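Input record (one chain):
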Amino acid sequence: MAERRSGAAEGLSRFSEWADAHLGLLRGLSTGMAVAGLLVLARSVRMTTKFTSALDIPVEFVEKNVKLRGKVHHVTEEGLKVEHVPISIPFITSIQRKWQSKGLLLIRLAGVELAPSGMAWLQQELKPNQMVWFQLLGREDLALECFVLVNKGRLFSLCLNEEILRRGLGRAARIEGLAHDSHLYWKLHRRLLRAEVKAWKKKKGIWKEASYSERIRDRISSNKFVETLKQLVNWFRSSVGR
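The corresponding structure, as predicted from the sequence alone:
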């Protein structure tokens, strides 16, 4: 028993000597752990912060194309008015609720030029307080350019940007906010173009309307002056033939 105690004492003594010799290292490790803890806390605070304006969202969130969630309140000509719903973490969230302000984010469907029929479809499709996910692609003044996703069951989500084009309720446009020579830009833009082509092939929505040249031809043929001129030419030809 005495030998065990002496062995334990000797081990403790050696550890104390090592700790004294590497005191700077231990202090550095403790400082590093403290800094890491603060960084984790800061990240948690950011992820649980409720954003009420596009300007509140950190630049790195937009640059990294972070996905956020929210509840749809209105569909307007400017875009979707969405209430941001942050991640909820006990203790942190309860404290933040005391000083969080109120406001709605303005979200545009990136890469889509909506037709009037597209806005009407969105107003029917999106119910009040419906949850959506929106991927940040760019920011212009107080508006966010996003890909907007709606959950359709546990395993399926619908991208509103693509669905609008797939139904022929809009046209594909440039994705504002993304560098046009980036891989992500062309990856998303190809998705939108494929959706638009499907509607064009099936003559859906705006693509089932007559082409511009066909409309001009129809207008000319229905013009009263042109009809009168045709009658005059036919009468002149019949008179000469006599």
